[in-house]
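Notebook entry, cofactor series.
This is the third protein in the set we're modelling with a bound small molecule. For this one the ligand is S-adenosylmethionine. I'm keeping the input format identical across the series so the outputs can be compared line by line later. Sequence and SMILES below, as received.
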Amino acid sequence: MSSPQPSDSSQEAIQEISNASEDQNNTTQVDMSKLYPHEKPDYKDPKYAGMSRRAIKRHYKQERWDATRDERRDAAKAKKKQKKEARKRMYEEGLITPPQGPKRIRLEDQVWSKLNVVIDCDFNSLMVEKEINSMQTQICRCYSSNRSAKYPCPITITSFGGDLEQVFDKKTPSRTNWKGVDFTTETYLEKFDKEKLVYLSADSDNVATELDENKVYIIGGIVDKNRYKGLCQEKAVKEGIPTAQLPIGEYLQLATRKVLTVNHVYEIMLKWLECKDWNQAFLEVIPQRKFKDFNASNQPNSSAAGEDSSDEEAVDEGSDIGATPQDN
Ligand SMILES: C[S@@+](CC[C@H](N)C(=O)[O-])C[C@H]1O[C@@H](n2cnc3c(N)ncnc32)[C@H](O)[C@@H]1O
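Returned structure with ligand:
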């Protein structure tokens, strides 16, 4: 049987898709010259007093970038819409099949879990700027995961402030309206009963067999590329809080250490609450390339494992555009 030949309109759709993908990150569409007519900064401007030429250039570049944030966002949205419409036409013409990714669950079918999750953000001073940006992205992803979860969990971001707060203010000011997420300057010890706390740590000797809905599970809000091994475990022990690691080793062999990103740990918890099956939860969330001797036979159905290239060492820099607030 011969494969369907693209009609003129699908050829157009294909062209639109490829144009859209080419342009998606193309910020040159935004007319910077309107806002910043000069390519170079005015080095004599008194606001740059005392700064080196290099610092002024960097500052000016950042200013230009920040000033066009709204335009860039609108341009990206328009391209996304265009791409979506073109794809829809291709589905309708049977040229491509719609992806089988996880579906958004209906709001009325979601049941809020009693299990509380804390993201302990007491580590700002241990992270460089890039890592703080990654941390912000990971928190956004946790929030977004709640939207497609059958049993979303209330999340409390403790010890929140400083540089991380500034990144949120700049990239995701809408966080103040996020449903189910409480940002607080308080510590988890100030916020919750100590008896209910369990600090999750890959360095713990205790292996969790299940999650208890009456507990408050703490995830260390840090991106450290393995610089601070045992940091959260030691913090918890010092504070007299029990710790637990996820039972990854019981189900999978990983090629690297079993240290996951904050959002992956959170997503695994959400999956476990839904299916009560660690193996399934790990396979659906942990990126395939972390598996030792990965082969196609243990490939999960979900798109989550294969497409997300982030792990503890490398979390892609996300933006507020990707982490859309819940519309409820
Ligand atoms: C990138 S890790 C931080 C690593 C850090 N060096 C530490 O001391 O935990 C972020 C957090 O995810 C959680 N986490 C990561 N892998 C885990 C695992 N295998 N079991 C339990 N929790 C894990 C921990 O709460 C950890 O603090």
